Amino acid sequence: KRIGAGGGVVVIGLGRFGKSLALELESDGMEVLGIDADPRPVQAVAGRLTHVVQADATDAEAMRQLSVHEFDRAVVAIGSSLEASVLAAFVLRGLHVPHIWAKATTKAQAQILEQVGVEHVVRPEHEMGRRTAHLVRGKMLDYI
Ligand code: ATP
Predict the structure, then answer these.
(1) Which of 17, 24, 36 to mutate to test the pocket of ligand 1 (most atoms within 8 A of CB)?
(2) Of the residues 43, 53, 54, 78, which should be mutated to test ligand 1's pocket, given the most ligand atoms within 8 Å of the CB?
(3) Are strands 73-76 and 99-103 parallel, antiparallel or unpaired?
(4) Which residues form a coiled coil (predicted)?
């Protein structure tokens, strides 16, 4: 069976967020394809992630050759390059990947990704800041 056929997740960008996401999904038993344009993060996860390749996710033809269109989920985990993040999401849309998540660092990036048609946009720093506030408030209550 080919990877991606009948399910599976493509994780684009193996920085801190993408790497931990990809490893967590694989340890949950999902089929994961990790992609990064830089050889270093690819090397770093090579022993732990079954399927990992070095490729530019903004290159539609390269993504097609990796059978990205056969996956039903994809996550764009590129934060700092707005251009790469938006282009990668656009390529996934063009390949008709049914469910797309993307990480955004700024509110503007989140809005652009939504405009491109990304179904789920997450803002980890923003969301964790709010969540941590709840934890801090909870802890404070213990002391008052
Ligand atoms: P972190 O998750 O560590 O906070 P970040 O949000 O700062 O990451 P970057 O470090 O900019 O995001 O990007 C995450 C990863 O995405 C990097 O390893 C980078 O090489 C990769 N990446 C950037 N552009 C592309 C691209 N066009 N195709 C594939 N991977 C890419």
Answers:
(1) 36
(2) 78
(3) parallel
(4) none
